[in-house]
Amino acid sequence: MIRTVDIYDTSIIGVFATCTEDIVLVPPLTKPEVCALLEDVLEVRVLEILINESIVVGALSRGNSNGFMLPYGARAEEMQKLTGIPVGILPDRLNAVGNIVLANDSAALVHPDLSDKALEAIAGTLKVDVYRGTIAGIKNVGMAGVVTNKGLLVHPKVTASERDALENIFGFPVNIGTTNFGTQMLGSGLLANSKNFVAGSETTGPELGRIEEALGFLD
To answer: What does the pLDDT look like over 52-105, one tens digit per residue?
Structure first.
């Protein structure tokens, strides 16, 4: 099975796309063969959209089975019609939602400087408990890790105290890894749900094996 791909001819697929259990959002003009691969491997609907007229859909959005969060200025009604699930707008100056929110269907870790109002909006839309924190001292937690309903993979320099917090928040052992031949901000190169994953084209065999193990795809 092919598990590596490019979007817009680049391996940073997590910047351009985002994945939930049922949906992958990609920018317009994503190659049909890429959309077909994502649909087949991840068992999802692939939907094309711009967010605030931008193609960096993965950096600007975060979703789970319950809803999607978008940045201020985005068209929530259009997104809700497209996805069929609730869509919320992040009421905060920090609004690259995909960069600053790490979430699955049970919990979310967010940038430590997000406002209480922003946390309430995330909790209300995604229907999860929301916690502030960092990964490897990095505030952009949405790109410093990947979490599904089966596992958690994060930046190799995660600290012991952060590990404890992450395990308490998500209920999974914390695994470390990289994508795209050593990229530690691994969320930039990985799309995953509980069914499968797709990584950027530069991701190596050992990196793929680590992802398989961390996200629960090894028998």
So the answer is: 999 999 999 999 999 999 999 999 999 999 999 999 999 999 989 999 999 999
Rounded Cα distance between 126 and 105, Å, is 7
Q: Are 47 and 25 in contact (CB under 8 A)?
A: yes
Question: What type of residue sits at position 186?
Answer: L
pLDDT at 219 over 70: no
Rounded CA-CA distance 43/31 in Å is 18
Q: Where are the domains of the chain?
A: 4-204
SS (H, E, C) the chain: CCCEECECCECCHHHHCEECCCEEEECCCCCHHHHHHHHHHHCCEEEECCECCECCHHHHCEECCCCEEECCCCCHHHHHHHHCCCEEECCCCCCCHHHHEEECCCEEEECCCCCHHHHHHHHHHHCCEEEECCECCECCCCCCEEECCCCEEECCCCCHHHHHHHHHHHCCCCEECCECCCECCHHHHEEECCCCEEEECCCCHHHHHHHHHHCCCCC
Determine how β-strand 152-154 pairs with β-strand 175-176: parallel
Q: pTM for this structure?
A: 0.97
Q: What's the token pair of residue 9?
A: 């001819």
Split at pLDDT 50, 70, 90, the class of 30 is: very high
Superfamily of domain 4-204: L-arginine/glycine Amidinotransferase; Chain A (3.75.10.10)
